[in-house]
Amino acid sequence: MEGHRAASGKNGNPLFPGGTLKMQEPYFKELGFDLSDYYPGTLNVSIAPHTYKTLSPIKTFKNLKWHPTDPPEDFSFFDVRLILEDKPPIAGLVYHPHPETKPKHLQAPDVLELLFPFLDDLSYNQQITLEFPSEQIKIT
């Protein structure tokens, strides 16, 4: 589904030049978490009518001050695999800005923001299959 386009910078907001992910990436890297293999934008997927519960992230960053004027935020990352017909599974990450610390661009409780290497064969409203480690994320 279409997202806010803030992560990729495609919404043209001058407060987030190049997108929020490009702005955040150096802070994550400095803390030992390199996102350079992933496209600097999120794949937004609705799992409605389901929602999800985060359990055990592979990485969490608390109180990350990445923007000059916005308050610090908490972020967690989880493993995910994208399954497309006739292709090997594609490993990615669930990018989870904690809603309680995120001042803008809140997502609906059924929307996951995913990071993958660049994918050119997806389109809006396409049905896809995702796999999550059951110890990390629970689909409810």
- Return the CATH class: Mainly Beta
Number of helices: 1
Rg, rounded, reads: 15 Å
CATH topology: Elongation Factor Tu (Ef-tu), domain 3
Domains (count): 1
Tell me the CATH architecture. Beta Barrel
Shape: globular
Structural class: mainly beta
What is the strand tally? 8
Give the name of the CATH superfamily: Riboflavin kinase-like
Average pLDDT value? 88
* Spatial separation of the terminal alpha carbons: 20 Å
Strand count, sense and barrel status of the largest sheet are:
6 strands, antiparallel
Tell me about this structure.
The protein has one domain: Riboflavin kinase-like (Elongation Factor Tu (Ef-tu), domain 3). 8% of the residues lie in helices and 31% in strands. The chain is built from one helix and eight strands; from the N terminus they run H-E-E-E-E-E-E-E-E. The strands form two sheets. Strands 1, 3, 4, 5, 6 and 7 form a six-stranded antiparallel sheet that branches. The protein has a two-stranded antiparallel ribbon with strand order 2-8. A hairpin with a 6-residue loop joins strand 4 (73-83) and strand 5.
